[in-house]
Amino acid sequence: MNTATKLSGFVLGLAAVFGAAYGVGQVAGPVAPAAGTGHDAADGHGDTGGAGHGGDEGGAAAHLPGGLLVSDRGYTLRPVDAPAGQFAFQVTGPDGRPVTAYDVAHDKRMHLIVARRDLSGFRHVHPEMTADGTWRVDSPLGGPGVWRAFADFTPTGGEALTLGVDVTVPGALTEQPLPAPAASTTVDGYTVTLTGAPQPGRTAELALTVNRDGAPVTDLEPYLGAYGHLVALRQGDLAYLHVHPDGEPGDGRTKPGPEVRFFAEVPSAGAYRLYLDFKHGGVVRTAEFTVVAGTPTGSASPAATGTPAARTPAATSSPTADAGHGAPGHGHN
Ligand SMILES: [Cu+2]
């Protein structure tokens, strides 16, 4: 186990890096950063270089964002036959046998996240394991299409991993266009507003503010040990980023809303879909946002991070960050 790495995620909120357990210093590898980010990326490494280097033995895989591999470090995600309406899978370990020993992370031993390849249909559920290492859950797959299923777990004695596998649901596919970027969204009468924008190669603060009927929600309920869980998926390959908030319930400084703050770093320019799970009134809801991580302007102005101006990429001088455009970074090549 790399306890230091885990702590950096839980306590400092630095888990905002793809493949958090692999350490912040390794995210920039083969995921091509936007042109001109080299210097900024180097700065980001310097800021957080102590977060751990537990993944070196993983070779090239250690440099990848989470969720892109079906097999990593000897662990393989294997869907198994299940009755209709159920989804079941195993994780086999380096010995080829199903893993049955998992550490609890964020209140659960297994987090299963699914999204269709067009980024619609996000669900985050918690399967139950039987003694043979088979995880089962009522199928979260919502309709026809190709889905990506992410298993986010820590095998006992190993590193935290997120493995991903495609699962096809037969039927006529109607592809959903990615919704345009917007600073707020509504779910079940709750309006959630996003302040801040992720930046390739550097840490940015994201704040999500929850209102209901125009009033701030100040009694969010802990869910999986936090007031909010944020998953980001990159358009195009569904690279997976599980972000945890800055602070946790009961730490004496984190309030139960209306604002939940995160620190996030994305490895490339482009469009991402953010999914915020929050709990209120005993119900977990998911607020979704499209964000475009723009090409940094190259100026050394970290002060812009997390300011209200950062919410609107169009306010910067970069034409590729036009918030109204909806397309991922054009000029990226
Ligand atoms: Cu979970």
Short descriptors:
mainly beta, five-stranded antiparallel sheet, 2 helices, 6% helix, binds copper (II) ion
Which strand order do you get reading across the main beta sheet?
1-2-3-8-7
Molecular shape: globular
Q: Extract low-pLDDT stretches.
A: 1-58, 297-333
- Provide the list of bound ligands, each named once: copper (II) ion
Major β-sheet, in short?
5 strands, antiparallel
Q: Radius of gyration over alpha carbons?
A: 19 Å
Order of helices and strands: HHEEEEEEEEEEEEEEEEEEE
The number of helical runs is: 2
Question: What share of residues is helical?
Answer: under 10%
Mean pLDDT: 77
Distance between the termini: 38 Å
Number of strands: 19
* Amount of beta strand: 25-35%
Structural class: mainly beta
Element layout with pairings:
Blueprint: H1 3-12, H2 38-48, E1 71-72, E2 75-80, E3 86-92, E4 102-103, E5 111-116, E6 123-125, E7 128-129, E8 134-138, E9 145-155, E10 161-169, E11 184-187, E12 190-195, E13 204-212, E14 215-216, E15 229-234, E16 240-243, E17 259-264, E18 270-280, E19 283-293
Antiparallel strand pairs: 1-2, 2-3, 3-8, 4-9, 5-6, 5-9, 7-8, 9-10, 11-12, 12-13, 13-14, 13-17, 15-16, 15-18, 18-19
Short description:
It is built from 2 helices and 19 strands. It has 333 residues and is mostly beta strands. Residues 1-58 and 297-333 have low confidence and may be disordered.
